[in-house]
Amino acid sequence: MIAADTIAAVATPPGEGGVAVVRISGPDARRILTRIFEPIGGWRGGPCPRHMVYGRVMLDGRPVDDALAVYFSGPRSYTGEDAAEIHGHGGWTAPRQTLEAALAAGARMAAPGEFTQRAFLSGKIDLSQAEAVMDMVSASTDSAARVAYGQLSGRLRRRVEAARGALLHALAGIEVTIDYPEDDLDAPVAQESAQRIDAIARDLEELLATAQAGRIYREGVRCAIIGRPNVGKSSLLNALLGEDRAIVTDTPGTTRDTLEAEIDVHGLRVVVVDTAGIRASADPLEQMGVERARRAVSAAGLALFLVDGTRPVSDEDRALYREVAARPHIVLRSKLDAAELSERAVSEAFPGAPLVSLSAKTGEGLDELERAILDVCAGGAVLPGEALMSNVRHIDAVRRAHRELKEALVTLRSGIPLDLATPGIRAAWHALGEVTGGTVDEDVVRHIFAHFCVGK
Ligand SMILES: Nc1nc2c(ncn2[C@@H]2O[C@H](COP(=O)(O)OP(=O)(O)OP(=O)(O)O)[C@@H](O)[C@H]2O)c(=O)[nH]1
Ligand SMILES: [Mg+2]
Questions:
Q1: How far is ligand 1, taken at its centre, from the CA of residue 258, in Å?
Q2: What span, in angstroms and rounded, lies between the C-alpha atoms of 113 and 28?
Q3: Beta carbons within 8 Å of 99's beta carbon, 6+ residues apart
Q4: Three-class secondary structure of residue 71 per DSSP
Q5: Which of 134, 186, 204, 303 could link 324 by a cystine bridge, Cβ 3.0 to 4.6 Å?
């Protein structure tokens, strides 16, 4: 599908920087480029695709920047359309003036994600790849970028397209028996189709098996540190961060508000939230802090439940533990350097919970805590090289497809008329199409691209 108008945007982030790129895409890209950019020595027969030229950007008849420009003729461009890029000086002014020149020459300001949306609409990439573009841009750890890159290079697309092709094949086989009922093909076709569908279902199971780790690596995880006052929560946050971010004192009730900071745990993005120590208090300010602490725990993917290693486990510790026991958690015995409380006493008080002993003061046990976080959140997967799926939308679609296929298998194996299995197989084909964008609602597509940044 070819868009009717030509769009332009600054593709690099605003602010001081060496280079900024203005992107132009659409049927008028070539004309706009030749209008606003003067190469040294002139265009001489017009822009040569994929050759960079040095020259000046012109606005209202005067040069506003020295830049490099390149023209791509569709479909050999990012969007699949005619496109151009002008690489000029970074900063607040030059890129804006180049964009202004492009708009004055007839381009329209691009909407967020519109370049990538055009690449999708022209069939250059599928929807899973378009989403991976955004994941690449927002990845904040190497592992998140690695998962995104796998998807960007079409690994998920190929798997899903292969499964869809195989489903169509199976459907065609079944339809033969419907068209030629006299041939009595039901039994052999049912068997063969069941084998095919079974293989596809297994393939989807494989995809789903790595999805949890993939999702965690893409989205990161929130960990709330929770415990009674003075057990060492803020000290733990500082130790994990390697800097004195939170105030630490020996007065119980020091932390009032929640405080969060981001760390990289072997490639997993972890947002650690320090909270106020939980206790009953007459002080309204402290009570607000306690409420926030409780909210932080319910919003977190993992609770780090701290008990003070220098004193016995109290009834208050036990009562507070009941609030976190039902959600993913790790019990931490703090102040290991001065510990009086044995590890055994802690594991007896909180049986079955993963337990780590550590000292924020010496750093002992912090590595073990990081490994425990990985274990609980991502099944210990440090390098998600095989995580093909990371996006909840994809995981949900593949899950539905898998469920439909499992039901179709029951039908195929039970000897009831074969055509009763076809709606389920079709539904699975349709659900998988949502991943690649072949069968997805226009609204969903619009929603996805609306979350992109301008210029991407
Ligand atoms: N020896 C030792 N002392 C520690 C350790 N961690 C914390 N402390 C001390 O324990 C006291 C309380 O530490 P904080 O980190 O403020 O405890 P908290 O749980 O944040 O306390 P509130 O904010 O009041 O709930 C301070 O005097 C710290 O120096 C540790 O690993 N070893
Ligand atoms: Mg504190």
A1: 16
A2: 19
A3: 8, 9, 10, 22, 109
A4: strand
A5: 303
Q: Is this model's pTM higher than 0.85 or not?
A: no
Q: Residue 443 C-alpha to ligand 2 middle, in angstroms? A: 46
Residue type, 33: L
Ligand nearest to the CA of 286: 1
The fraction of the chain above a pLDDT of 70, given in percent, is 96
What is the CA angle 261-267-269, rounded to 5?
Answer: 30
pLDDT at 385: 56
359 close to ligand 1 (CB < 6 Angstrom): yes
pLDDT of residue 405: 97
Q: Is 245 in the pocket of ligand 1 (CB under 6 A)?
A: no
The bound ligand whose nearest atom lies closest to the alpha carbon of 340 is 1
Q: Which domains does the chain have, with CATH numbers?
A: 7-123 (3.30.1360.120), 132-210+389-437 (1.20.120.430), 221-378 (3.40.50.300)
In tens, the pLDDT along 174-211 reads 887 776 666 566 677 778 888 999 999 999 998 998 88
Instruction: Give the distance (Å) from ligand 1 centre to CA of residue 252.
Output: 9
